[in-house]
Specification:
The chain has 754 residues and is mainly beta. The protein is built from three helices and 55 strands. The protein has six domains: 181 residues, Sandwich (Jelly Rolls); 74 residues, Immunoglobulins (Immunoglobulin-like, Sandwich), CATH 2.60.40; 125 residues, Immunoglobulins (Immunoglobulin-like, Sandwich); 77 residues, Immunoglobulin-like (Sandwich); 145 residues, Immunoglobulin-like (Sandwich), CATH 2.60.40; 82 residues, Immunoglobulin-like (Sandwich), CATH 2.60.40. The chain is globular.
C-alpha cells in the first residue's frame, strides 16, 4: 500500500510539472576570469570567508527572453577549481529596485540554498533551490552567496563578464562572522557568469509590442513582439488593411496618415490582444532638413540606455532604447515662432541616470554649434527638461534639424558629433516662422517689497519686441529693456510696461505691484560674504525665528539679503528658537550674529548668537540681552553656513556654503509696538471685508484713511475684541487703519484692498 501511495504521489508531481517549460537563462558570456587570489569569487577561499551580492538588471533578464516566473536553480561557471570544501555555503535572493550595488549589503533576502558544505568543481556548478524563487518580471534580481571557513587556501578561478554598472559587492576577511556583516569592502564592475533555470508559467500570453519608430517618412516600420509567456502564433493588423502572422514583421505604409495597430498572441493556454490607437504616423511627403555633417552612432546599445520620448511643442514622439542606435525621425516635425518660448522634455530613465543635451541647427548649415545652438542639457538625470526661446535671427520657413543625445552618465557629456557609448542620438525637424502678432507682454522684478527703494525690473515679453516703455507708478518712466529704478517715497505702486515690435504694441499693468517701506531699512553691512565654489548641496535651505519662516534654494544662489522681506520683533530678556535647515548630503559649520549695536559689523565675541559645528539642521535657543542693544530699530541678523572646518566670521567668504541676512527689532515690554502685536488684520489684501482681532484690550473706535489722509470710513463705540469691517464700496488701493482702545492707546495698521 505504501508503494502504491508513493507511486501515485510521484505521478501527481510529474503530472503537475509536466506542463511547465524549463529554460536555461545565461547572464554573461565573457571568458574573462579572476585569479586564484582575486575577486569577485563566490567560491573564493583566499580569505577565511567571502560574502558576495551580485545584481542582475531586469533589462538583462528580459533581453534573454525571461519573463515573470519561478527560478528553480542557479549555477556559476568555474574555469579552474580549488577543490576546498566551503563551510555553510549559502545562497539568498530577492527582487530589488536597486540599479547598482553599494558598500552596504542589502537585507531582506530569501534563503534558497544551504547552509551546507559545498566543494566546487570545474564547469557549471548547479545549485538547486530548496523551493523555487518567484521573479516578478520587472524588478532587478539580487543574489547573495556566503561561506566562512577557519583556514585559507585560494580562490576558484571563475568565468565572469564586465557590466556598465557596479554589479558585485564583496566582503572577504580572515575572521568569523563574515556572513552576518552589513558592509562590503569593495564593489566591482565585474560579475561572475550566472545560469538560471527558469520555468515559464502555464498562462496565456500577456500581449505587448513595439515598433522601430512611431513616425516614418519612408513608410517602412518594423514591429517587435514583446509578449510574455512564450506565444506560439501571432496575428497583426497594421490599421491600413495590411496583416501579418510573423513574430516580428516589417510593414510598408503607402499613404500619409495616423494608424492604429493591433496584435493578438496565442500559446497553448490561451490568447491576449493589445491595441495601440493612433500609434504610427506616416508622412511620406514630409520635407526634411539638409543632411548633417555628422551622424553619432551608438557604440554599445545592448544595455537599455537611450531616449524613450521627446516632447517639444506638438512633437510627442515615443521611441525604443539605444538598441536602435542613431534614429532619424526628421519626418516628425513641428512649427514654432521666432521670439516665442516652448517647453522641451526628454525621457531617458532606463536603466539609470544619463547625461543629455539637445541642439537646433538655427542657421541651417548642417553643423551643430555645441554652445550657441545648445537648447537644453542635464547631467546625471533620469529626464531632461527646460524652456527653449527661439532666437529672432534663426533661419525662417525652412526645415531645421533638432538633435537630441542621451548617454550613460559615466561617459563624457554629449557633443553633437561624438558617438554615444551606451546611449543614442535622435534627429527631428523644426520649422521656424515669424509671428506677426504684437508682443505678449510680461515682466518681473527682483523684489516686490523694498526698504531702500531700489528695484531691478526684467522684461519677459515674447515675440521679439524692440522698444519698451515703463511707467513705475511714481511719475518716473524708462525706455530700457531691463531698467533699475529707485523709489524715493514710501507707498504702493502700480507698474506698467508697453512693448513694441514690427507688428504693433501691447501693454501690461500690475496693480499694487511694488511696496516701498523705507522705515524698515537697515544699516548697510560693511561686507557681503560671497560663495567661492558651490557644490554638493551645501548652503541654507530655510531659517525660522519667531515669525520669520523663510525657505530658499541653497548656496548655488550665493549671498542672499532677506532683511527687508523677512523681519520679526523680539522682546529683550526673552528666549527664541533659531532653526537653520542646511544641505542634506554633508554636515556643516553654522554661525549666526545679530548686529546689536547697529554699526554694520558682526563681532565674534559680543554679537555671535549661534555656533553649531559639524551638524545637520542646527537649532538653538537664543536669549536676547537687556543691555547694550539698540531698541526699536531694525538690526541685521546674519547666518553663515559652510563646509566643516571652514573659517567663518561675519565677513568671511564661504567656500561651498553661503550667508543670508534677516532683520530683527527689539521692542521692550509695554512699548507701542507691543500694542501693535496685539491686533491682527486678516485677510490682507482684502476684497469686500476684513476682520480685526484683539488679543487683549477691547477695540473702541476704528477709522480708515487713504494714503493722503482722507478719512473714508469709521466705526465708533465698538467695545469688542473682534469685528468685521465692510469695505465693498472702497476703491482698490492701500489704506491706513487707525485702531483706538478703551484705555486710550492707538495703533495704525496698513490694509490693501483689491
Amino acid at each position: 500500500m505504501k508503494t502504491l501511495f508513493r507511486n501515485l504521489t510521484f505521478f501527481i508531481l510529474l503530472f503537475s510539472f509536466s506542463g511547465l517549460s524549463q529554460t536555461t537563462i545565461t547572464i554573461g558570456s565573457s571568458s574573462s576570469t579572476n585569479t586564484n587570489t582575486g575577486y569577485p569569487a563566490p567560491y573564493g577561499n583566499w580569505y577565511f570567508g567571502a560574502k558576495h551580492q551580485m545584481l542582475i538588471l531586469a533589462s538583462e533578464l528580459g533581453a534573454q527572453g525571461m519573463t515573470a516566473g519561478e527560478i528553480s536553480s542557479l549555477a556559476f561557471n568555474v574555469a579552474t577549481n580549488e577543490g576546498i570544501p566551503l563551510t555553510d555555503f549559502t545562497i539568498k535572493i530577492k527582487n530589488t529596485p536597486s540599479l547598482t550595488v553599494t558598500p552596504t549589503f542589502e537585507t531582506g533576502l530569501t534563503t534558497i540554498y544551504g547552509p551546507q558544505t559545498y566543494t566546487e568543481s570545474s564547469g557549471w556548478n548547479i545549485h538547486n533551490f530548496s523551493s523555487p524563487f518567484y521573479w516578478d518580471g520587472t524588478s532587478n534580481l539580487l543574489i547573495e552567496t556566503c561561506f566562512n571557513n577557519s583556514t585559507f587556501t585560494g580562490n576558484a578561478v571563475m568565468f565572469m563578464s564586465s557590466t556598465s554598472f557596479e554589479s558585485t559587492s564583496v566582503l572577504f576577511q580572515d575572521a568569523s562572522g563574515v556572513c552576518s556583516s552589513a558592509t562590503a569592502f569593495e564593489s566591482f564592475f565585474d560579475r561572475p557568469n550566472i545560469q538560471l533555470q527558469w520555468e515559464t508559467p502555464n498562462a496565456p500570453p500577456l500581449c505587448d509590442f513595439s515598433a522601430s519608430s512611431t513616425n516614418t517618412c519612408s513608410g517602412d516600420i518594423q514591429f517587435f513582439d514583446q509578449s510574455t509567456n512564450s506565444p506560439t502564433t501571432w496575428s497583426w493588423d497594421f490599421g491600413d488593411g495590411g496583416t501579418s502572422t510573423l513574430e516580428n514583421p516589417t510593414h510598408t505604409y503607402l499613404a500619409n496618415g495616423t494608424y492604429t495597430v493591433s496584435l493578438t498572441t496565442t500559446n497553448a493556454f490561451g490568447s491576449d490582444s493589445e491595441t495601440k490607437a493612433n500609434y504610427i504616423i506616416v508622412n511620406v511627403s514630409g520635407a526634411t532638413p539638409i543632411a548633417a555633417t555628422c551622424t553619432p552612432n551608438t557604440t554599445d546599445g545592448s544595455l537599455g540606455f537611450g531616449i524613450t520620448n521627446v516632447t517639444f511643442n506638438t512633437l510627442n514622439i515615443n521611441s525604443g532604447s539605444s538598441i536602435e542606435g542613431y534614429t532619424d525621425l526628421t519626418c516628425s516635425q513641428t512649427t514654432v515662432f521666432a521670439g516665442q518660448s516652448y517647453d522641451i522634455s526628454i525621457e531617458h530613465a532606463s536603466p539609470t541616470t544619463h547625461n543629455c543635451a539637445a541642439w537646433i541647427d538655427y542657421n541651417n548649415d548642417g553643423v551643430f554649434n555645441p554652445t550657441s545652438e545648445l537648447i537644453v542639457s542635464s547631467s546625471s538625470s533620469l529626464g531632461t527638461s527646460g524652456v527653449v526661446t527661439i532666437p529672432s535671427n534663426a533661419t525662417l520657413n525652412t526645415p531645421l534639424r533638432l538633435r537630441v543625445i542621451a548617454d550613460y552618465d559615466l561617459n563624457a557629456d554629449p557633443n553633437p558629433c561624438d558617438d554615444p557609448g551606451y546611449g543614442q542620438a535622435e534627429d527631428y525637424t523644426i520649422i521656424i516662422e515669424q509671428d506677426v502678432s504684437p508682443p505678449a507682454v510680461d515682466f518681473t522684478s527682483n523684489v516686490v517689497l523694498t526698504c531702500d527703494g531700489v528695484v531691478n525690473f526684467s522684461d519677459l515679453s515674447t515675440n521679439i519686441p524692440f522698444a519698451w516703455a515703463w511707467d513705475f507708478g511714481d511719475g518716473n518712466t524708462s525706455v530700457q529693456q531691463n531698467p533699475t529704478h529707485t523709489y524715493t517715497t514710501d507707498g504702493i505702486y502700480n507698474v506698467e510696461l508697453i512693448a513694441t515690435n514690427s507688428f504693433g504694441n501691447s501693454f501690461l499693468t500690475k496693480s499694487a505691484y511694488i511696496e516701498v517701506i523705507t522705515a524698515n531699512e537697515l544699516t548697510t553691512a560693511v561686507c557681503n560674504p560671497q560663495t567661492l565654489a558651490y557644490c554638493c548641496e551645501y548652503g541654507i535651505y530655510s531659517v525660522q525665528l519667531n515669525t520669520i519662516n523663510n525657505s530658499s534654494v541653497n548656496a548655488i544662489e550665493g549671498y542672499q539679503d532677506f532683511s527687508c522681506q523677512n523681519q520679526t520683533d523680539l522682546t529683550p530678556g526673552n528666549s527664541y528658537l533659531l532653526s537653520v535647515r542646511t544641505g542634506p548630503d554633508n554636515p556643516q559649520d553654522t554661525k549666526a550674529w545679530i548686529d546689536y549695536n547697529n554699526d554694520g559689523m558682526f563681532d565674534n565675541s559680543t554679537e555671535l548668537v549661534m555656533e553649531a559645528l559639524s551638524t545637520y539642521d542646527p537649532q538653538l535657543n537664543i536669549t536676547i540681552p537687556t543691555l547694550g542693544i539698540a531698541n526699536n530699530v531694525w538690526l541685521r541678523m546674519r547666518i553663515s553656513s559652510d563646509e566643516v572646518g571652514s573659517t567663518i566670521t561675519g565677513c568671511s567668504n564661504c567656500n561651498r556654503g553661503q550667508a543670508e541676512d534677516y532683520a530683527v527689532r527689539f521692542i521692550p515690554t509695554g512699548s507701542e509696538e507691543h500694542i501693535s502685536d496685539a491686533f491682527k488684520i486678516h485677510p490682507n489684501p482684502a476684497n469686500e471685508k476684513f476682520y480685526i482681532e484683539s488679543s487683549n484690550q477691547p477695540i473702541k473706535n476704528i477709522s480708515i484713511y487713504s494714503l493722503i489722509g482722507e478719512k473714508v470710513s469709521m466705526q465708533s463705540n465698538i467695545n469688542r475684541k473682534h469685528l468685521a469691517m465692510d469695505i465693498a464700496e472702497l476703491p482698490n488701493g492701500a489704506y491706513l487703519v487707525l485702531i483706538q482702545t478703551e484705555s486710550g492707546s492707538q495703533i495704525t495698521k496698513k490694509i490693501i484692498i483689491h
